[in-house]
Amino acid sequence: MLFLLGTANRMGSMRLQCSKQYCYLYDLTTSEDTFTYQYIPQHVEVLCIENTVMEHIDHAILEGVPSTIQEVIVTNSFALRWISVPRAVKSMMITSTNLRRMDIEANSSLSYLAVSVCDLVKVPDSIKHARSLGWLYITSCKLQGLNMASLCDNVRLGVLSLMRNKIRYVVNTSTRHCGVYDALASVTLSENLLTTVSMELFNVLVRMDGLYLQNNRIRTLAGQLIHGTLAELRMDGNKLSSVDLCGWTVPSLASLMLDRNNLTAVPLCVNNFTNTSLLTMRSNRLSNFTIESVAGMSSLRKLDLSCNTLKTVMLSTAHFPADLEMLNIDYNNLEALDLSFVPVRSLEVHVSYNLISSFDACGASRNVSQLLMYDNMIVCAWHTSSVRERDRCNKTDGSVRRLHNEHHREVCYG
Question: How many CA atoms lie within 13 A of 333 on its CB side?
Fold first, then answer.
């Protein structure tokens, strides 16, 4: 079903167009245009206001939205600077505006709020009125910082995403226990301008299981993270040259991502992370590595060291992560590989795009269940024991060496 209503006024032409679940209100000019709400079918759940020429969508304009509407969307409205959200609005999305101010009425019913591409420079003070808010997204705007105290009274806020802003700091000036501490499960601050992060700030968020700090400019992690429920920590795409995890207590941490930093060594005390199953350090500056440096990570299943500058890797040792299943050391500078002693039941090794000219396939441990060694001076690969018995390794010509640096730059650094 398609319903179309058009009117002309002094400022231009306003249109209401409805389909099965959506109604689109185009070119909203004055509060008088809200008479069109009476024509919205009862089965419609979403009202999208597009290309409004108003600088302020005030309380009266949204208060008249029919109660059958479950979500209000305001989009592609670059005249908009200010919006007032009445108590009855439950879900709201605002995208592609020049929004600078948001007023949320006290005792708000708002449970979902997403704002993207706007001019907000801080989390609105009135967010405290949205005590039922479960999801808050402010992305691709101009937030300068985050004070956790501004969310203190959002006792149901489970998901907070402030990615792609201009955030330079995170603080908490609250002097009391905040309800949000017992609610937040996911915090995303990726793609901002952070350079230093005090990890202790997140200790109070007792339900948090995901913390996403990737693609900032972080050089320093201050303080110690002591957290019982955190399962995933992303710090990839920063400027960390070293990481000290000593004193951290994160017994639930399953995934630690440190790709695309400037690390020259494995983080200090990473062996204390006995429940972590995924560690990625792709695209760093590691030149030497011994598996003993992560041997204490007894739950580690996947280790990614690809796209470094590794010249030596020591794997043949009894001090080995007991559950390791996959090791990726593609795109490095290895010239030799020793897999003669691998004390785990089944290990998959990726070591393509290196410069390996010395490898004893016959002497490789039977515990190496899969080997991918393409684009080296020696090419050798098997996926099963039968393939391993049948196929032989082959030497290649010098073209591999000539193409190595070009492949490395293209794949690892774009």
Answer: 12
Which residues, at least 6 apart from 325, have a Cβ–Cβ distance to it below 8 Å? Answer: 301, 302, 344, 346, 347, 348
Phi, psi of 241 (to 5 degrees): -100, -20
Is residue 50 a part of any domain in this protein?
no
Secondary structure (DSSP) of 102-130:
EEE-TT----EEEEESS---S--GGGGG-
Q: Is residue 402 part of a domain?
A: yes
pTM to 2 decimal places: 0.93
Q: What is the pLDDT of residues 130-187, one digit of tens each?
A: 999 999 999 999 999 999 999 999 999 999 999 999 999 999 999 999 999 999 999 9
Q: How many domains does the chain have?
A: 1
Enclosing domain of residue 371: 286-413
CA dihedral 333, 336, 337, 340 (to 10 degrees): -170
Q: Encode pLDDT of 179-221 as tens digits.
A: 999 999 999 999 999 999 999 999 999 999 999 999 999 999 9
